[in-house]
Amino acid sequence: MNWLTEITLNHYLALSGILFMIGMAGVMIRRSILVIYMCLELMLNAANLALVAFNRFSPAARDYDGQIMVFFIITVAAAEVAVGLALIVSLYRLRQTTNVNDLNSLKF
Amino acid sequence: MNWIVLLPPLIAAVLITLVLHPYKKISVFTSILACTISLGGALALFFSSSNEGLSSFVWAAVPGLKITIGAMGDHLAVLMLLVVTGVGLLIHIFSYGYMEQDPSLSRFYAKLSLFMFSMLGIVLADNLVMMFIFWELVGLSSYLLIGFWFQKPSAAEAAKKAFIVNRIGDFGFMLGILGTWAIFGSIHFTELKEIVATSGVPAGFSSGIVALVAFGLFMGCMGKSAQVPLHVWLPDAMEGPTPVSALIHAATMVAAGVYMLCRVFFILELSVSALDVIMWIGAITSIFAALIALQQSDIKRILAYSTLSQLGYMVMAVGIGATTEAMFHLTTHAFFKALLFLAAGSVIHGLHHEQDIWKMGNLKKYMPVTFWTFLIGTAALTGFPFLSGFFSKESILFAAYHQNIVVFSIGIFTALLTAFYMTRLVVVAFFGKERTHEVHHAHESPLVMTVPLIVLAILSLFGGVIGIDHYIGEHKVAHEAGGFYFVMGLSITCFLAGTAGALFIYLKAKAEPFSLPLLRDKFYSDEIYEACLVKPQQVLAKALSWFDYWVVGGVFVRLTSISAAGAGEILRLLQGGSLQAYVVMFILGVALLCYWFLVRVAL
Predict the structure, then answer these.
(1) Does the structure show a pLDDT above 90 at B524?
(2) Do B579 and A28 touch (CB under 8 A)?
(3) Is A1 touching B (CB cutoff 8 A)?
């Protein structure tokens, strides 16, 4: 029962994969644009988790590449949230809805 | 000198079309004046002792081929010039009486002048290409004149028919010209004659090719001179005004084919088989048309078939090598056939455009001048002894007698038929009782019409004895060759038998006593053409139209556009605007890529 006592890279990757799948499923099946947005963030964080894990288990000493990448992603995601939420708010103002089924016109 | 003959009609045609057409009388005068000047030029050529060095200029020159616009001044050309301008002038004058009431009189005279120009061009041509150019111009002016009353559908149809049928012959003529050029390397008549006289056919050309070339040239004649099987246009051409029928479809243009054959006879002579073909086609045409003429009731159509028959005689004469006889008959025929047509025109004019002979009768009482001139024309045509037609026909039959007895028999029998149907025409139209009320109102035509008739009648009376044949050349067979009196006796017998038979049958007839549908319907030649050429051609056209519509237009054009539009239509469904559908596709795509690169490629 080795895998229960010792936490290995595979555990992290499995968790990351599960999070990613949950996020992807949410993007695919949820109808509220805000929930879709949160699921997207979940997918980003799943990727972050994988990167940190890889960095932690890297054989090379003083290797911070993975963590730097994670910071990049967090920063970009923050910017993205700002832009994305702004878009969603203005879309809501225009159409009075956040349901993507009602947001399918190719042009206004 | 030759320009004085050739150009005035062209100038007249251009002037009338561009400037003078609102002034009818001036147009008519211009046209007649042009014709008179041409006649004067032709007479000058006739009386000048030497016609060498007529001016010419190079029209086009490429290595190996020089095309000149020049003139021939030999006796053959001068005789033909005199016929064309002389008969032409009389018909110009006659037309003024006949067409006076027509609102498009100026247009008529412009076209008539254009025709004169083209016809004189053919006669003067000193090479085959120049002849061909004017040949086509004649075809054009014939088309324009047959379709002069183009408001009448039948006239428009007839014009089209004449043009198309002539195209077939002209195509053969063009091939013949190209063949002549290929074999002999020249298209000038005098040069060709020298080449043929000195070296004959160049080595390397089989007799078959020469025969083909000769036949090609003859094709041109078949079209213009309406020989079987290209004869179908001539009877229909009678839809044109009667003076046109007289000038173009009796006296001059249709004779151009015979004239051309005489011009290139030295080439035809190289191939015995070609001459045989010509002889037989001429003989067949003469009897074929004469048989049809027996049963026609339209005065102009009888004359048209008679013209066909006489052209057959001329072509037959060329086929047996008797070019002098052919030209002699051409000349006399031009006189009496123009006379007959003009007289028929006078009858039609007097009867307000009635052409059915069974609606005439006793016209001699109402139109004495027309009657007497028509009678003289008929006598000349049927071979009444010592009139013009008698001599020329006699000389052809005599030559045939020495050449081929079967052809001679056909000729003699045709002479019998000619006497029969012409007498029938005269008896039915001019004798007996008035068959319809309109005849009582018939009136003699004015002087402008009767004077040309009288002049032509005089020519028809004496045309045989003024030495036309000696002017052109030697007779093929000398009178001393034997059988001369036998042939003469036989043809006089035929004349008497035909005339007497027709008198006997038709003098008391109230309506056509016989009905021979085969002859009345022209041996069904139009129907045969319809079934053998027009129908298959239309089926082919329909098939090609189907191919064009479905294969070219369908597969190549519409299918291409439909497939592009369809692909767009299908791809449009993917762009539904649904965000999550895009996500699914995106993920599926990523999954596919992962599968491809991680599983397939890695393996």
Answers:
(1) no
(2) no
(3) no
Q: How confident is the model at residue B437 (pLDDT cuts 50, 70, 90)?
A: confident
Cβ within 8 Å, pair B578-A24: no
**Which residues, 6 or more positions from B554, have their beta carbon under 8 angstroms from its beta carbon?**
none
Tokens of B295: 């049963």
Mutation target to probe the A interface, by most A beta carbons within 10 A, among B579, B586, B588, B594 is B579
- B52 pLDDT more than 70: no
B584 shares contact with chain A (CB less than 8 Å): yes
Q: How many pairs of residues across A and B have Cβ atoms under 8 Å apart? A: 21
CA distance to partner chain A, nearest, from residue B543 (Å): 49
* CB < 8 Å from A in window 563-582 of B: 575-580
Q: Cα(B99)–Cα(B581) distance, rounded to whole angstroms?
A: 86
CATH number of the structural domain spanning residue A55: 1.10.287.3510
Q: How confident is the model at residue A108 (pLDDT cuts 50, 70, 90)?
A: low
Structure tokens at B382: 């049927």
Two tokens at B514?
């016989």
Work out the average pLDDT over B376-390.
Answer: 90
Q: How far is CA A12 from CA A16, A22, A57, A72, B594, in A?
A: 6, 15, 10, 20, 21
Secondary element (H or E) of residue B314: helix B299-319
Average pLDDT, chain B: 89
**Do the Cβ atoms of B204 and B256 come closer than 8 Å?**
no
Whether residue A35 lies inside any domain: the answer is yes
Nearest chain A CA: its distance from B587 CA (Å): 9
Domain-embedded: residue A1? no
A70 in a structural domain: yes
Contact B576 A104 (CB under 8 A): yes
The question of ipTM being above 0.90 is answered as no
If you average pLDDT over residues B389-408, what whole number do you get?
90
Q: What tokens appear for B70 in the block? A: 């020049």
Give the closest of A24, A36, A104 to B587, CB-based: A24
Count CB-CB contacts under 10 A for residue B218: 30
pLDDT interval class at A1 (50, 70, 90): low
Looking at residue B66, its pLDDT comes to 86
Q: A77 lies in a domain?
A: yes
Residues 6+ apart with CB under 8 A from B488: B394
Report the Cα–Cα distance between both ends of chain A, in Å, rounded.
59
Total length of chain B? 603
How far from B207 is each of B189, B200, B274, CA to CA, in Å?
A: 21, 11, 10
- pLDDT at residue B154 above 80? yes
Which amino acid does the sequence have at B258?
Answer: V
- Reference B447, options B103, B100, B23; nearest CA is B100
B577 → closest Cβ in A27, A28, A104: A104
Range of the domain at A61: 6-100
The letter for the amino acid at B405 is I
CA–CA distance from A32 to each of A84, A88, A95, B97, B521 (Å)? 14, 11, 14, 101, 92
A96 touches chain B (CB under 8 A): no
Sign of CA dihedral B322, B328, B331, B333: negative
Q: Structurally, how many domains does chain A consist of? A: 1
Q: Please give the average per-residue pLDDT across B591-601, as a whole number.
A: 88
